[in-house]
Structures are given as structure tokens and as C-alpha cells.
């Protein structure tokens, strides 16, 4: 049986038994916070539990490395929607130790793409069109510096309100321990 079939079979039982009722909430975050975190699998449940967050408390936006790589990309748009439309009054950028984004390179990504059938000609066309793969697949050496960089992009965005604090933290993906990198109240 395929993973999709497993999901659909479970979902049928989940909805028939009304398991969803314990997760019902509004679209507005109760704790008025938006969190940008990495998409790392170890953080799916650990991150909210380590912060005393439950379903409905916060908006969680995930991206590889918790990076804001473009000031007018989908991550920044999501944060602006959270603040202006969904009543988030604070933002937390949360990176983590042992992040896969600290180990990738554009060369290895492009090699893997070719191995999975992406033709070299397509990659070269994108390069010719101005795609900077080194920037797009940006990695980092220091998770703390990376978190500071994302906080800086958000805080200095021309459409981001000055009175909304942007915090930066790093989580240990094994223990859930949070280390403060940027205190948005004092930044």
C-alpha cells in the first residue's frame, strides 16, 4: 500500500470518529505570535511543546533553515499576512543546531537534481536567466548568525511595522532547549 493510501485510510477513520474536534480553533493565533522555524522533522512536535504552544496558539511558518532569503518572497509575505491580517503582535525566528542547511552546497544540490533527471541544459538556461544557485541554495556556518540575518531582514523590511518585536532563538533538536540570540524587546 502506498503512503498516500495509508494517509487517506487513516484520515477516513479520523474524520468519521470526529478526532478533529480536539484540534478545532480559529485562524487567529491565541498567543498573537508568528514563528518562522526550520522544516526539520525533529521540530514538528518538539518545537511547540518546548515553547508551551498548543494548536491555535501561534502561526508557524516553515522553511529550510528558517531562512528569509528574499525580502519579497513567500516567507516574508506569510509573516506580513500573520501580522496585518491574523493579529500576530510578535515574531520569533527559530533556527536549530545540526541544521541540514548548514551542510548543503549548490554543487551537491545540482548534482542530485541531475541524478534525478533534471537535464544540464535546463540548469544552464536558468543560470543564463539570472538564477544564482549559490544564493538560492544559501547555506550557513553559524546558526546564530543565520538567525540574526533572518531577524534583520524581517525587522528592516519596508512594510514591516516598527512596533512588532522580532526575536531570534536557537533550539537544540535533541532536548528542546532554547537559546536566546535576539531579544526583540530590546533590539
TL;DR of this structure?
Helix content is 37%, strand content 16%.
Which terms would index this structure?
187 residues; alpha/beta; Beta-carbonic Anhydrase, Chain A; five-stranded mixed sheet; 7 helices; 16% strand; globular
Topology at a glance:
Elements: H1 3-16, E1 33-38, H2 43-50, E2 58-63, H3 74-84, E3 90-96, H4 106-115, H5 120-128, H6 133-136, H7 143-155, E4 166-171, E5 178-182
Parallel strand pairs: 1-2, 1-3, 3-4
Antiparallel strand pairs: 4-5
Q: Can you tell me the CATH class of the domain at 28-103 and 139-182?
A: Alpha Beta
Strand order of the largest sheet: 2-1-3-4-5
Rg estimate, integer Å: 19 Å
Helical proportion, percent range: 25-40%
Please, what is the CATH homologous superfamily of the domain at 28-103 and 139-182? Carbonic anhydrase
Please tell me about this protein's structure.
The protein contains seven helices and five strands, in the order H-E-H-E-H-E-H-H-H-H-E-E. Helices cover 37% and strands 16% of the residues. A five-stranded mixed β-sheet has the order 2-1-3-4-5, sandwiched between helices. The termini are far apart. The longest helix has 14 residues. The chain is globular, with a radius of gyration of 19 Å. It has a domain of 120 residues: Beta-carbonic Anhydrase, Chain A. The chain has 187 residues and is α/β, with parallel strands linked by helices.
Amino acid at each position: 500500500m502506498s503512503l498516500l493510501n495509508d494517509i487517506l485510510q487513516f484520515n477516513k477513520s479520523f474524520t468519521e470518529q470526529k478526532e478533529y474536534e480536539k484540534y478545532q480553533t480559529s485562524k487567529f493565533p491565541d498567543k498573537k505570535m508568528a514563528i518562522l522555524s526550520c522544516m526539520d522533522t525533529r521540530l514538528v512536535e518538539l518545537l511547540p511543546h518546548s515553547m508551551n504552544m498548543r494548536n491555535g496558539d501561534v502561526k508557524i511558518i516553515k522553511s529550510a533553515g528558517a531562512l528569509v532569503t528574499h525580502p519579497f518572497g513567500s516567507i516574508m509575505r506569510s509573516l506580513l499576512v500573520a501580522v496585518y491580517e491574523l493579529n500576530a503582535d510578535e515574531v520569533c525566528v527559530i533556527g536549530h543546531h545540526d541544521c541540514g542547511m548548514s551542510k548543503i552546497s549548490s554543487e551537491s544540490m545540482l548534482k542530485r537534481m541531475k541524478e534525478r533527471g533534471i537535464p544540464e541544459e535546463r540548469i544552464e538556461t536558468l543560470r543564463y536567466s539570472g538564477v544564482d544557485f549559490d544564493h538560492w541554495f544559501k547555506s550557513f556556518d553559524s546558526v546564530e548568525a543565520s538567525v540574526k540575518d533572518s531577524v534583520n531582514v524581517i525587522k528592516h523590511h519596508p512594510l514591516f511595522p516598527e512596533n512588532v518585536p522580532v526575536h531570534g532563538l536557537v533550539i537544540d533538536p535533541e532536548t528542546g532547549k532554547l537559546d536566546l540570540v535576539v531579544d526583540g524587546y530590546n533590539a
